[in-house]
Specification:
Blueprint: H1 2-10, E1 30-35, E2 38-47, E3 53-57, E4 71-74, E5 81-83, H2 89-97, H3 100-114
């Protein structure tokens, strides 16, 4: 029985901490979700009438079969953090640093500092594109 529960847990999405304010998710927003120990960004294609979120994966994942462009369905309580694609903070950091990696890591730290980001799990590996 324990093995079956563990397998089921590994194939479901991580739940947002109930103490964190529920995000206001709308079409076009970026959402971060997690499954199988991997967290990743998706773009919300549609918020369904029942509250489910149809989203498009924005990366090639390592621990699951999803690739950039694949559609998934998640619930609002699976949303770990959000980002508005109209926010130019990341673009400004990229222009200032000239490095995708450096800009991403500073952007992440800024989001943690203002409470909009989620803390990394222990033994986290960040996978970033090699774009300069």
């Amino acid at each position: 029985m324990e093995a079956a529960v563990e397998r089921l847990r590994q194939h479901t999405f991580e739940l947002r901490d109930k103490r964190v304010q529920r995000p206001n998710v709308r079409d076009g927003m970026l959402i971060k979700v997690g499954t199988r120990g991997e967290r990743f960004w998706c773009r919300v294609k549609r918020v369904c009438e029942d509250g489910a979120l149809l989203a498009v994966v924005d990366n090639d994942l390592i621990r699951s079969h999803w690739r950039c462009g694949d559609e998934i369905v998640v619930q609002n309580n699976h949303v770990l953090e959000t980002s508005d694609p109209k926010d130019m903070t990341f673009a400004s950091l990229l222009a200032a640093f000239g490095s995708m990696k450096d800009a991403a890591m500073v952007w992440r730290e800024l989001r943690l500092a203002d409470g909009s980001g989620v803390k990394a799990k222990p033994v986290t590996f960040f996978v970033l594109p090699d774009i300069h």
